[in-house]
């Protein structure tokens, strides 16, 4: 039986990489990409590049932590009543080796969520919500192997964020009022036709529903593996309502029964895992527990500051991942980077001067 080749529509016609196609194996299934179980010492995680907003948040957090240690921030009992003190580890801090596992620096001091906190400030989730996750030693070992190409590409599992990735909400109180990132609908059409797609946002379920209903048709929604919102972060009731840092633990989506059943070879015991999954998100911190399964793209904050053709570049990178036996090792060695000189190729029949 000849491999069934599926031409990728949509943006493929626009970008510079050709041809893109994914194919089922001759057995009619998909190529197994089980990662070697070698016990390779986990090297230190790279410090991710910070944008201005992240830098400002970190500076603020560190300043408040210092103030906290000096007794300036916690002398007001009225403030403590709001949520109680929390341990905070600022994102992207220096690496500390812990039995070969890369870990963040020790907590820098308690922090308190206050009503007068700046809007962008986030606090760490409480222990009841799972705290701050780190990658497991097994995960790090599997991502340490050298990238290996498949003979034929395969359909991968793509988990896509909403706010900052596909859209920008100028006013978060009006979630149905948002600006779409350039090419957002075309990109989603393409992803749903080509990959196994999940949507996962830390916004509340009712808001996610409004956003998704503007981006996808009912038929497209039905084709998504899952559409997950804030209620899927296992947050405590207090954290659910607070401005906490959310973590997209991929193990929680991989272990979900409906997600497990969505793997085309589920009946043969195959699962979505670090070898075949990518999280498309503007926040590296959200992907902290599986740091080499995130395709971090620049945060979309409106068309003015937007680099050229971000989503077509993501499209091309996703196509590359279809050819990889272990997505986490590929991303570890070749992380996604925006090319400032990227130019779309006009579709056939469109002539430009
Ligand atoms: Mg986001």
Automatic annotation (TrEMBL):
Keyword Hydrolase in annotation: no
Superkingdom of the organism of origin: Eukaryota
Basic and acidic residues: bias regions: 113-124
Start-end of Polar residues biased regions: 91-101
Annotated InterPro entries: FCP1_dom (IPR004274), HAD-like_sf (IPR036412), HAD_sf (IPR023214), TIM50 (IPR050365)
Biological-process GO terms, alphabetical: protein transport
GO cellular component annotations of the record: TIM23 mitochondrial import inner membrane translocase complex
Annotated compartments: Mitochondrion inner membrane
UniProt protein name: Mitochondrial import inner membrane translocase subunit TIM50
Lineage, uppermost ranks: Eukaryota, Fungi, Dikarya, Ascomycota, Pezizomycotina
